[in-house]
């Protein structure tokens, strides 16, 4: 309400972009705070797993920052050489950030393997426990707002961020349990937990690259969108059939579609042309 004008107009590309920017800033701030706390906590306690989990949050900062930059570049709009806008900059930034995340995960895996070979005792105390619990609560909050806003603006990127927040929550919970187990039983499994978190980071980066490449190569449109477009065209009684629907996604809500409409036998060509323009306007207003 404070930062987004017309914040209830979820169908507007401008409002979608403002929501994406605001949520990106919130994600960056929270993840920087979590990284700082976990890194300090990991150094104090001597836990490789906590340090790895902290760098997982730093990876989230990198991906979110690059996504934020992508949203800004995507909002440049159409130009002489790019008549369909610059929305796909967001996808390119996503690939760069995902590769950076994978590289970070590989580096942390090497450190974790070294910790497995030469395990050291972990200094687990109430401060470490409180920081990890705060991290779990923060990621749960991020899951809630990303899921809610992602659903409101129909953003697959924000829904993916919500899912990633759940994964981070679970990994931090696993580390907390591992530290408790080591404190109670003496089993040194900290390095193994760090390795698991590192593998998760690499897998998340690879998954993100695969999803982005699928969009660049031409991902099939949502069935709900296809159905809605056809239904709107068929609302006109003089339209008998709709086929050859093609949908091109240029990013940031900029979608170009084309389709063939067929009229009933009694409709004249000029009337069909007029209906086509009305359908275009209806789609523009509704979607």
Describe this structure in words.
The structure is a single chain. The protein is mainly α and 287 residues long. It contains 8 helices and 2 strands, in the order αααααααββα. It has a two-stranded antiparallel sheet. α2 runs parallel beside α6 (190-218) and α5 (156-185) runs antiparallel to α6. The longest helix has 33 residues, at 13-45. The radius of gyration is 24 Å and the shape is elongated.
Structural class computed from helices and strand pairing: mainly alpha
Radius of gyration: 24 Å
Number of strands: 2
What topology, given as strand order, has the largest sheet?
1-2
**Mean pLDDT score, rounded?**
80
> What is the percent of helical residues?
over 70%
Keywords summarizing the entry:
287 residues; mainly alpha; two-stranded antiparallel sheet; 8 helices
Secondary structure elements and their pairing?
Elements: H1 13-45, H2 48-74, H3 89-117, H4 126-153, H5 156-185, H6 190-218, H7 223-234, E1 239-249, E2 255-263, H8 269-286
Helix pairs in contact: 1-2, 1-4, 2-3, 2-5, 2-6, 3-6, 4-5, 5-6
In short:
The protein is mainly alpha-helical and 287 residues long. The chain is built from eight helices and two strands.
């Amino acid at each position: 309400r404070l930062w987004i004008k017309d914040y209830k107009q979820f169908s507007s590309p401008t409002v979608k972009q403002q929501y994406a920017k605001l949520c990106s800033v919130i994600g960056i701030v929270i993840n920087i705070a979590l990284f700082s706390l976990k890194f300090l906590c990991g150094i104090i306690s001597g836990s490789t797993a906590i340090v790895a989990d902290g760098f997982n949050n730093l990876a989230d900062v990198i991906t979110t920052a690059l996504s934020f930059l992508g949203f800004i570049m995507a909002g440049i709009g159409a130009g002489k050489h790019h008549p369909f806008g610059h929305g796909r900059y967001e996808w390119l930034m996503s690939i760069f950030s995902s590769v950076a995340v994978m590289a970070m995960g590989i580096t942390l895996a090497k450190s974790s393997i070294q910790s497995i070979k030469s395990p050291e005792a972990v200094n687990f105390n109430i401060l470490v426990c409180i920081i990890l619990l705060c991290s779990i609560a923060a990621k749960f909050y991020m899951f809630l707002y990303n899921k809610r806003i992602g659903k409101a603006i129909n953003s697959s990127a924000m829904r993916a961020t919500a899912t990633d927040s759940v994964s981070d929550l679970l990994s931090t919970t696993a580390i907390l349990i591992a530290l408790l187990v080591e404190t109670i039983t003496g089993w040194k499994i900290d390095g193994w937990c760090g390795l698991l978190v590192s593998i998760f980071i690499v897998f998340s980066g690879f998954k993100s690259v695969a999803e982005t490449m699928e969009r660049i190569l031409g991902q099939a449109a949502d069935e709900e969108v296809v159905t809605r477009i056809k239904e709107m065209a068929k609302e006109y009684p003089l339209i008998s059939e709709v086929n050859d629907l093609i949908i091109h996604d240029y990013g940031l809500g900029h979608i170009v579609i084309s389709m063939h409409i067929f009229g009933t036998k009694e409709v004249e060509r000029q009337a069909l042309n007029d209906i086509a323009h009305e359908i275009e306007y209806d789609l523009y207003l509704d979607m």
